[in-house]
Records
---
Amino acid sequence: MTAGRESADAALGAGAGWRDQPPLDPDVRRAFLDARRRSQEERYDTLHAPTYDEHWGEISPSHADFVGRLLERTRPGGMILDAPCGTGKYWPLVLASGRTLVGIDQSAGMLRVAAAKHPEVPIARLGLQELAIEGLFDAVMCVDALENVGPEDWPVVLARLCRAARPGVPIYMTVELLDEDEVRQGFVAARAAGIPVVPGEHVDVTSDGALGYHYYPDAASVRSWVDGAGLERLDGRVGDGYQHLLVRRPG
Ligand SMILES: C[S@@+](CC[C@H](N)C(=O)[O-])C[C@H]1O[C@@H](n2cnc3c(N)ncnc32)[C@H](O)[C@@H]1O
């Protein structure tokens, strides 16, 4: 890093210990997160749904490994909640193992693609933040989606995923990883543009003026949210750009 950039970063509060920032106005943050969520929903509906399988349909080795670990711990014939399910990328694997599925997603466009491929799987248009099912599922998977969830919503979302699972059953979740320097640069650029991001949030202003949104929490925050939701940590490893976590609802 150059001396010039170091001092610019320091002026923006993004020097050493940059993730410790004074809090922003909660109302400003809520409005920002709600707008990001609406924009992501629209992008998935219109931009990603038609080409998602073509571009991201392949399952990486570490994802396949963790879906396998989840299935090993799920009773035969058990019902798995895939939240959010997107286009149902993992459904062939899960169905071939003899388990059943329910898929939820906030994007109607993504759900339409999933339903066209697997009309036998029940689906619902539902956000992670609104999921209110109690103790129904024999396992839960939340794959490549938590990067869409802002820090204020993480505790709510983990609590809801936990509650949807029956006591004692496994939950597989992923946390997307990005080089810390890139995360910091994203924070500095967004703040310089007057966007009310908090550390870890990354927005890309697209040609149509929309803001893409991803959030990259640090490992300590993830640990504290997982523990705060009362989830027991079973297994975890980094692979293919993600932290894979297998946890369990106690009971
Ligand atoms: C990258 S895709 C992953 C989908 C699927 N789990 C997979 O691995 O292929 C992310 C999905 O999360 C959904 N999503 C993002 N934020 C959400 C939220 N707050 N509630 C429900 N779904 C959400 C998007 O609509 C999209 O289908």
---
Amino acid sequence: MSEPSASPEPNPFDILGEATVALVAKRFYDHMEASEPALTAMHRLGDDGRLHPEVRERFALFLAGWLGGPQEYMARHGHPRLRMRHAKVQVDTAARDAWLRCMYAALDDAKVEGPLRAFLDMRFADVANFLRNAEG
Ligand code: HEM
């Protein structure tokens, strides 16, 4: 049996499961590469011109922790400090909306539905809005 958790209520990670959370992170960047060239170009790319695998890996770790799963991102990279880590990119309304389109498409792919989906849509929109740092 695993150690009892300090917060026993199921969190989004528990409800979705590890595989679904990993799928959301993967599909998020797949959509970005396929449909959002401007947003893709803001990210670190590999020699092949595709998103650098580390970008995918870091976000996948972050997402699992942010949804209530293992705090692996924190252990490896420290506190996310999202506004600070996004300071070098111009996050305007267009970038925010492109980001959210990718995330909502990924959540669709992973069949995240119902009240949890409504909650996550809202939380992602809140964070994306909070990260805006440029006019327009
Ligand atoms: C609002 C529009 C957003 C834009 C344009 C954006 C763009 C970016 C870019 C360009 C990077 C750098 C990747 C790299 O080259 O290393 C990044 C990293 C990251 N973003 Fe965003 N992002 C947005 C929203 C969000 C949101 C809403 C979240 C969380 C819910 C998020 C979480 C992260 C994380 C965790 C990283 C990795 C930080 C690191 O470890 O260096 N981003 N983002």
